Amino acid sequence: MRGVIMHTPGDVRVEDRPTPTIIDPTDAIIRIAATCICGSDLWPYRGVDHPDHMPMGHEYVGVVTEIGADVETLQVGDFVVGSFFASDNTCEICQAGYQSRCVHATGLDGTQAEYARIPFADGTLVSTPGRPDPDLIPSLLAASDVLGTGWFAAVAAEVGQGKTVAVVGDGAVGLLGILAAKELGAERIIAMSRHADRQALAREFGATDIVEERGDEGVTRIKELTNGLGAHSVIEAVGTQESMMQAIRATRAGGHVGYVGVSHDVALPGEELFFSGVHLHGGPAPVRRFLPQLIQLIWDRKIDPGKVFDLTLPLEQAAEGYRAMDQRRATKVLLTF
Ligand SMILES: [Zn+2]
């Protein structure tokens, strides 16, 4: 089969890879219907992480082609959406809703490919109610990571009726955090963005205000918009020192930060944190917790998160997709077959 391999930072190639087969009786094999490039794939691409012939990709929707002997809830032919971490969905951690930290949590062996092996298929994959219309596929694909992650960030930030929410980061996760905040009843949603096209999508997803300033200036603007108090809920969807401190300082005492940007060299100042009175909650999103609800919202055409994809390319042109995201010519790239 064909699949994306990152040889070294910046060197993305589509190559022949072995077609995956069932290894454990709880596995399923799926034929990928659509996959995409994640903002987090840019960390190795830019050399912040150190890839060495790494199979790429962790977002996927597809059709089950083979199941192991112990798989009970899925059948060959099912159209499925899965999370970027495999999870058993039965252990105490999963039952508490933290499937990304399942005691059996394991990553996937590169879903930017024609086929993928999904461990713990019963616990990881969720079937759609039927074969989706083609126009629903981008939104279902978004549910497998960026929508699920933005949704978790909003839940972790305790977004709810009547609250003011600020969103740090205007990538796909930040934009879908806005969508989630709107769905969860936020009264006011402040998007922090300085890109006109992303501001427009932010407004379409429910942003009521745009703040272009960053860092301390951005914090000052949020305070000005919230009677000097800060937002009730802040979504952090970047993962840098600056973005994390911007999120914490833009939150009012007693408020909540939901942080989902993959942390890179973030160090929190203990004394400032102590006196802030701010709740912090986040980490790798337990997307599996939200998948049934998100799939239904998409199936019923109540939300359209697939709008975050602004470039679609055949898998064979994945390298151009990485370049486009790296150069910010695209927010999120969908790869098709
Ligand atoms: Zn588990």
Query: Using only CA atoms, what is the Rg?
Result: 19 Å
CATH architecture of the largest domain: Alpha-Beta Complex
Question: What is the count of distinct domains?
Answer: 2
- The percent range for strand residues is 15-25%
Hetero groups:
zinc ion
Q: Based on Cα principal axes, name the global outline.
A: globular
Query: Fraction of residues in helices?
Result: 25-40%
Protein name: Zinc-dependent alcohol dehydrogenase family protein
Domain Enoyl reductase (ER): 7-335
Cofactor: Zn(2+)
Family: Belongs to the zinc-containing alcohol dehydrogenase family.
Explain what this protein looks like in three dimensions.
It is a single chain. The chain has 337 residues and is of the alpha/beta class. The protein has two domains: 2-145 and 286-336, Quinone Oxidoreductase, Chain A, domain 1; 147-282, Rossmann fold, CATH 3.40.50. It contains twelve helices and 16 strands. It has helices at residues 42-45, 92-95, 121-124, 137-143, 146-156, 172-183, 196-205, 215-225, 241-249, 270-276, 287-299, 318-326, and strands at 2-8, 11-16, 28-37, 54-55, 60-67, 79-82, 115-118, 125-127, 164-168, 188-192, 209-211, 231-236, 251-259, 279-282, 311-314, 333-336. The strands form three sheets. Strands 3, 5, 6, 7, 8, 15 and 16 form a seven-stranded mixed β-sheet that branches. It has a six-stranded parallel β-sheet with strand order 11-10-9-12-13-14, with helices on both faces. Helix 5 (146-156) crosses helix 6 (172-183) and helix 5 crosses helix 11. It is globular. The N and C termini lie close together (12 Å). 53% of the residues are buried. Bound molecules: zinc ion. Zinc ion binds next to helix 2. Belongs to the zinc-containing alcohol dehydrogenase family. Its cofactor is Zn(2+). Residues 7-335 form the Enoyl reductase (ER) domain. It holds the Pfam family ADH_zinc_N. This is Zinc-dependent alcohol dehydrogenase family protein.
